[in-house]
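Dear Dr. H.,

I hope your travels went smoothly. While you were away I took the liberty of generating a structure for the chain from your last submission, since the lab meeting agenda had it listed for discussion. I wanted you to have the full record in hand beforehand rather than looking at slides cold. The sequence, exactly as received, is reproduced here:
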Amino acid sequence: MSRFTSALLAVCQALAAGWIAHAPLSAAASYPGIGRPATPAEIAAWDIDVRPDFKGLPPGSGSVLKGQDVWEAKCATCHGTFGESNEVFSPLAGGTTTEDIRTGRVRALQEPVARTTLMKVSSISTLWDYINRAMPWNAPKSLSVEEVYATLAYLLHLGDIVPADFVLSDRNIAQVQERLPNRNGKVRYDGLWKLRGKGDVQNVACMKECPIEVGLSSFLPDHARDSHGNLADQYRTVGPARAVNTTRAAAADLPARTPPGPAALFKQHQCGSCHQPDKAFIGPSLADIAARYRGDAGAAARLALKVKNGGSGSWGAVPMPSHASMADSDITLLVQWILGGAK
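The corresponding predicted structure, in token form, is as follows:
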């Protein structure tokens, strides 16, 4: 079995390599004039990620003191002077202890308390990478390498991970990683990585009580459809998705709506909060209603009026609330369904 798996992986790798090698040619043939090979400079501009083993980390350094200056100028507005602010974003520092730094597991995470970044993060590379690519908020990728090191050094100092006179660099960042409070807090699930490992999801397949009717829950309102021009003219023609022509009325783009069935109406209007299928609850059961009015030709009209207006006295002292907002056609359909046995 292992030899078969190895052979299969080798075939997949060969096919993938062939697809990658021929993808630009096939794309150019299918869509002439679209696309070109990326230049080394373009690739270098995107290839800035830093791995947990610190591969990709550029050489450089930055001090806590320098980081404090950068922080006050570019970070404190959102994160507070000491990384404690939650006015704009969640706090970055706080919630960690000297014992957490020693064990590498943040004890407070076992309690229902507010989380900070230094409580959760398990790799310093994550912090360096995010600061480098996304900060500051209003000018991402504008920090120099020294400023990124310095900013991170100041943040680590706020968590008592490094002292005030510390200089963080690519040469000592691995040692600082060994003081990160939650460095041992991440768990690896082999099911995500190994073909023969146990899967991380153990759910039982469920194929019952699935919805059979789907309705639109949101849509682009008419007043906003052309606020950015015709979306159909701005969307690429490559791929399966197409944009809506927003110069037309919304009704022209929406599929014909399938009216909800009686069971869906029963759920939509929360009728089950008072009525159960086969036993009395706050109100009579659906089975009891059908049994009482079986053979009564005028029952449907009377019950529809009762659902519309509400009232009490037929089944006890608890009043039936009004459902005046329901469409008459929906009420009629619902009542007929109940009288017919609520199948």
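Two observations you may find useful: Strands lie at 61-63, 167-169. The chain has a mean pLDDT of 82.

With kind regards,
E. W.
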